[in-house]
């Protein structure tokens, strides 16, 4: 049987005017800033007006560690949102925006797939409403003002060897990872070593996604550390006097974007921080607004539960005062087989033993999420090659872990295929078992917070930090940053720092190579193993196959 591609399905969607989608949540036309007919930003005035509303129930969708077999976390998020609406609940979806770099690099979008997608798919995966361009511009303005300050006399006495503010671009470009800037003579400034990250790794992105409003945004931007003096005292963005102009550039980008699913249900798509170097969740302002307007809000966090869910629960929920009512962990039979040692080429053949062997990875994620006091439902994202025996093996394993697994066929059938999952999630929430709490308190030392995540979530023996790193953490504690949460940057493919170690490994350490202070975003980043903040393109990038057809439609985009 031939299946339509994601973009063919999206292009055939029966989209409704965005004003109709807004009406479903009680957002009037005057409070929507349209970008064409099918997407709009929600005004800050309206957001302020609904703050007295009761909150709906928050559902987090996370997953096992990613594998080349695919898991379908966003697809499940969208499918569950549609499924909840199908069974008569007032539900909204909240997901992240897509970065241009990965879209033109490795094939894969951020709008869902099959019949569980958010539209307009092409625009969402390309420029959308320009939020990422605004973030790139605000970040670049600060970069220019730092070098300009140094050029015109360096009144702040910045040590040019200790400028920690890198530049960004929303593209995968390995040639920019490490550069030398200001070459070409006296008129161009003082030559120094510099580099680029991808825009989604910018602290400005993390701040936009954690800020409650424009006032909070400017304060956080001003708190960013951009350089150090020779005495190692920090220089802040507010010292460069860049925070006001940066806020102006981000004024519209702060407003959440409203779009729709294929079934015309409301979806907020806003923000997109990296899930390893940052916290990997959509914006706080989108999530909190959705909670004021819908009875159920389905959101997702990047990568597997050891990264995305841990950061959602320890960082985003802590910062925004959120309390999830349930967590859905997405798994596929194919990924279970891969965790059980089956090669990608052999995933089509039935192998119940490999499924059972690979379930250890799923089991650890279930146990970890439950440790936050939140009930877990497992969504088995259905593939046509799954056998009944393999699906049953996953269900039996999850039942042995004290949770329930539901087969969901949203990719193939839309909400008809996810109604069972939606019903089970509602039943779970209505039992009222959620008693959410982060796994470490604010007052715990930074080193102990890092070690807590390494041992309790990854199941490492310990987090290994040398004396220099421990001294740096202590120095930040002395400066008043000790109450910040920690953001662990490590590979998404394994509980360890080795991306090849699948399953549920034990008997390993987590080496902390470096720590960084994101003083504006409000967390300390622990770099564990090799983490890339500027990806490169693969040998055959997706960009080679993306073009316009004779009708002016995009081809090759998924």
Stretches where pLDDT is under 50 for at least 5 consecutive residues are: none
Instruction: Assign an overall shape.
Output: globular
The main sheet comes to: 12 strands, mixed
Number of domains: 3
- How far apart the termini lie comes to 19 Å
Percent range of helical residues? 25-40%
CATH superfamily of the largest domain: P-loop containing nucleotide triphosphate hydrolases
Q: How many E strands? A: 25
CATH class category of the largest domain: Alpha Beta
Helix segment tally: 19
- Strand proportion: 15-25%
CATH topology call of the largest domain: Rossmann fold
Which architecture of the largest domain would the CATH scheme give at its second level? 3-Layer(aba) Sandwich
**Average pLDDT taken over every residue:** 93
Structural class: alpha/beta
Whole-angstrom Rg:
23 Å
Short note summarizing the structure:
Helix 7 packs antiparallel against helix 10.
Description:
This protein is 36% helix and 19% strand. It has 558 residues and is of the alpha/beta class. The strands form six sheets. Strands 1, 2, 3, 4, 5, 6, 14, 15, 16, 17, 18 and 19 form a twelve-stranded mixed beta sheet that branches. The protein has a four-stranded mixed beta sheet with strand order 20-22-23-21. The longest helix is centred in the first third of the chain and has 21 residues, at 131-151.
